[in-house]
Amino acid sequence: MKERLSVAYGTAAWACQSIQKTKKKKKKKKKLTIIQNKPFPENNKMEGGGIEGGAGVSEQAIRGAQYIKAFFEGRSDRNFVFERIISQGSWGFTVQMMMRSNEAPETLSPRPLGNAFGLQPISSLLDSPVRQSFNQFNPMSRGLVPSFGPSFRPSLGRGSQIPRASQSATRFVMKRSLAEVGENNITKEIDTLNRLRGSMHIAQPSHVIDDPRWNNVMQSLKGPTLVMDWIDHGLLWSFYERRAEVDEPLPNRLLWALFLCLCRMVVALTWPQRDLGRPISAGLEIETIPPANLSGERPPKARLLHGDFHGQNIMIDQLEPQEHGTAPVLKLIDFGLSRDLPVRVNEPRNIVVKTNIRAIGEVMLGLLRGNVKGGPGLMDITYNGETRKINSYATDLDRLSSKYRAPSILVAKHQERIANLDPDIRSLVASCVAVGIDDRPDIEDLLGIVEQNAKSKTANDYVGYKYANLETDAAIKRIIDTHMFDA
Question: What is the pTM of this model?
């Protein structure tokens, strides 16, 4: 049974966790684990809370969702509708909302809020059903991931238009806190997203907040509230999970496209938008390296660290004409742990940027069904035409660690996929997760190399590869439609 489960997930690095579950685990000192934006099944309803999506959610989150639902049902204009709770973390919860068209607002008699729906502080979720459900290891995440069915696809993104019989509506996402620390984190997240406003690969505030009707709401709704766009196609982690059931590797051309999105996220964090008054209606811009001045100097790099950068905090949006005609836009979410790091004495050069670069390397490694858990080792890489050895956590791109104790069938399939990997992708991913800070690439070089390959390589570049048939535009479209858009 354990082996069957492992084969289904399709990665030896992940499989070893299932095989070794019978081993007695050492007791670890308890600590609060941040698990926000981890989804719950779409068809779950709480037995008695009257909240869609509430199964497995803590009492505090249910009460918070009940307060939100009652608040909007208690308004006479009924312009905004609570739909469901979609996720919960240790200090906050997220709900799915809908704004009716301004053309045909529905007016109903208000319902009383009632004292029972007040928000209650949460001290810990370590022993809650939420925490207990996050018990599977995944190579795309540093920590724990939810065990739930494949039907749920959370979304946070561009306002999704919902056709109605006599009116249209906009779906959006609202994030609220469960405790005082959560209020601080949400306030910090709002500030960070304002700095990153207009970045195509960063989740954006919803245009709902520019609607005068929302301003009326905010005058009555207590506590900080983060309102974000609805993103259509769920988590990158969920795409990985669905794709892991397939033996074939991801096409190299698709990997280049996803890698480029990740690099653009790092650029956004490195040079945040400086126009803090930028209106949401101004649209989104692709993140680029800012030009140097006459002295050859670029604007200083920010020291903004995301702090929770992994596949469960990256979402899949739509195609767009500028750079995403084949592969969709990826967007980074959940900035509750982001922070500007202070300068330390004798710190390595660009340590903050290169910490973000290591994070995108780990995401890429997960897409390649590898993991840093195998530990570092010496790897031969070629970078800027120079071949050298570096100490890197990407050793799964050479061979699977014996620590995994993976079945031979999984080892063989993994090696077959790795043999199909573009050596340039291998070298870049290995460099991104290098142990030494100085062995990791600068974002200027990394973006240039990845952008050039993503835009120039065609299916003809992979003639002779075992899975060359996957490199055509049509094959990539089928994978995206099947495992991203229609899943």
Answer: 0.79
